[in-house]
Structures are given as C-alpha cells and as structure tokens.
C-alpha cells in the first residue's frame, strides 16, 4: 500500500487514530491504500477550527471565494483522467464513468465560482415613509457535510462548492470506503488559497464523525446524502436542537414504458438507468413498469440486451459495468435476490456471482418479474437489480409509479405528447424524465425529491442558496 489517506484539520494533515485498508472492489488483492480514522476529540477540533475561521471567511470578498473555487474546478478538470482512475479503483465505477464524474465535479466548482459573484439580494420600498428595506443573504456558519460512496467526487463537490461560495466553513465526512477520492479533493482545496480552518476533511466512522457533526453545537447546518434509516435518525437528532438540515435519502424510481414507445430506445433507456454505474445510483430505474401489449416483447429484448453487457474490472477497456462497491453492499444485493425468490418473484436474467481474472465483487445484472407488493419492487436495493411490473394501461402504470414511499425520479418512454405531458404533471417525484434514463442529471439545475427521498431545500444550481444562506431583513430610516 503506497498511499495513506489523511484527514485535514485547520490547515494541517492529520494521520488519524488507527488505520484500515482502502479496498479495490475490482481486485481485492491490490488495495488502493490505507486511511486513518479520526477520534471524537479530533472531530471536535475540526469543528472548532471551522467556527473560528468562518467569522472572517463569511466577510471575505465574493472575488476571493470565486477565485478559490475556480482554482479547484480548473485543477479537477485538468486532472480528470488521473482522478477518474483513482475513483474507478476505489469505488468500482467504470473508467469512462469515473472520468466523467471527475469532470462533473470540476464543472460544479466552476459553476459556484460564478455564483459567489451573484449572491442575490433585494431593496424594497417600506410601507412607512422615509424607511428603506434591504433583504440580504448571509452564510449560515459552519456546515457539516456527510457524503455517500457512490459518487465520491460529484456529491461532495455539489455540497462543498456552494457552502464555500456563500461564505460558510466546512467539515466534510466522506464514506469510509472512498477515502482516497475525499483526500484528493481535500489536497486540491488545501492549495486553493482558503484560510486555515475554512475547509476540513474528517475521515472516520459515522458513529464517531457523523455523531459529532449532529451533536456539536459548533455545527450550524448539516447536509447528508445516504440511507433512509440514517437520514431519519439524523433528522430526529437535528430537530432536538434546531439544527438546519438537508437530507437526500434514495429512491425506488419507476420507468414507465407505454405500448406506443420506440421499444428499442425504451430498452436502452431502461438498461442505462437500471444497471450502469452497477445500479448504485439513488436515481436508478429500479422499477420498470411496462404496459401489457409490449410487456413480453420488452422483457425479451431487455434479456437479449443484458446478455451483451460486459461486467469486469473497472479499469479494463470495453467494460459496461464494474463490480459492486463493497462486500457489505454485495451481500445486500444477494439477500434481496433471495427475498424475491422466496416471495414468488421470477428471476428472468442474471443475479449470479462472477469469477473473473481478478477477484472482486462481481454480480451479473439481474432482471426480476415481480408483483407490486413484492419487497424487490418496493425497497431500494442499490445494486444491478431491477424489477419489471406489468401495467394494464397508462392510468394503471401511473398509479404503480406513484405507489411508493419514495419520490426522487420518475421516467416515461412514450411517443405520445398527451401522456408525456400528463406524466410530467402527475408523477409524484422531484424530477421527471421523458424518453431519458432516470439516472443522469445536470449540475446547474435543482436536484431532489419528494416523500421519503428528500427533506429540506434542493441541492445544486441556484437553488443551493436556500440551504447555504440565511435571509436578513434590514430597515433604515433616513
């Protein structure tokens, strides 16, 4: 192991209290490196440093913030192949997807460099003569960021960049299985001209680092992306002390395929949305709802397409799907396949462990014919697993699409403007895609869902200002 990934506190690199291997899910015999985990005292030190540094950073010029973020974005873009390779090794995403994610992270920093110069405000006339009213936005203070492992560059970018752009300080906790990407991002930020303490990287367990971020009163706001159980627990803890919180917690996203759809295009949309990135996307099309007249043909064409999918080492050329990111996630995927069988769902394709040239967490993409009540059709699996459901007609398909506790994305494949328009209005989701995969969003527009998928203001784009700032109204008498 040639690389040790350290935390970054108050402008200093910190080794952490212990060490663990950073696994390569494509080749279990060749770890990416090792990392150290912070203890509670070190996390609290990071929070204190952020609180101290934020006072001046919150009053810094917009140009200073814009220059720092532009530097970060430019370096990420210049090094996207190198960073993409690290991401592919560490998370298991194919190399082209990983390079694309690195580029997206760079673009996000570039976008918020511009937003730092466009912080909105208003000047209004008062109802009282001789009184002026100014409405301004100010930073909330110290932002705790808890990011998941499935997009280890892009998701941290779309949280860290707006936090810094609007004058906040940051304490960032990455997922434990992707410390290398977090370290690489922190290393670039450490050279961006930020005052010591404005940005801090805290590598460690949720039990230690995450708990400190929600309990320590030096944290003014918390942005979390992860599982529903963890998000709900954080929400309860945040409510007890009035902590501003933003949650993104997954989905069970429907893709409706109507009988009038271009079926070849619909199959490509379904396979891309359900299985690319190994299905490890909260926006994945994990429920394929197909209108009865084309149900059998859709399944036949999808099975044929899945036979062409190549699963392999994330760094290998020609690979469509890399390994599952971790042993624990692989076990979850396999357990849901067994649950599906036990409940009477039919495995139509895949779901098999694969032995390849290098030992890794390889699973062939699984397609399962299910009923709406089956757990495989209701609970998020977060792997290369999709359930297909039969719908009698459009109205039935829409009802099935909305029959879920989640509401992140919803998609429809159709050539009908009537049904596309109706679906966009009536799908109970924060994002709707027409003739596009549900997985695949732009970084300059709002991201977020409804129901159990999200809580709090939207992420990304100009809407990020709602979470990372607080509004002040000032009255002045002449």
From TrEMBL:
The residues covered by the Aldehyde dehydrogenase domain are: 19-473
Sample GO molecular function, one term: oxidoreductase activity, acting on the aldehyde or oxo group of donors, NAD or NADP as acceptor
Keyword annotations from UniProtKB, A to Z: Oxidoreductase
Q: Which residues are named in the active-site annotation?
A: 248
Instruction: Tell me any Pfam family this protein matches.
Output: Aldedh
| Superkingdom per UniProt | Bacteria
Report the InterPro entries cross-referenced here: Ald_DH/histidinol_DH, Ald_DH_C, Ald_DH_CS_CYS, Ald_DH_CS_GLU, Ald_DH_N, Aldehyde_DH_dom
PANTHER family attached to this UniProt entry: ALDEHYDE DEHYDROGENASE-RELATED (PTHR11699)
The Swiss-Prot or TrEMBL record describes its family as follows: Belongs to the aldehyde dehydrogenase family.
Protein name in the entry: Aldehyde dehydrogenase (NAD+)
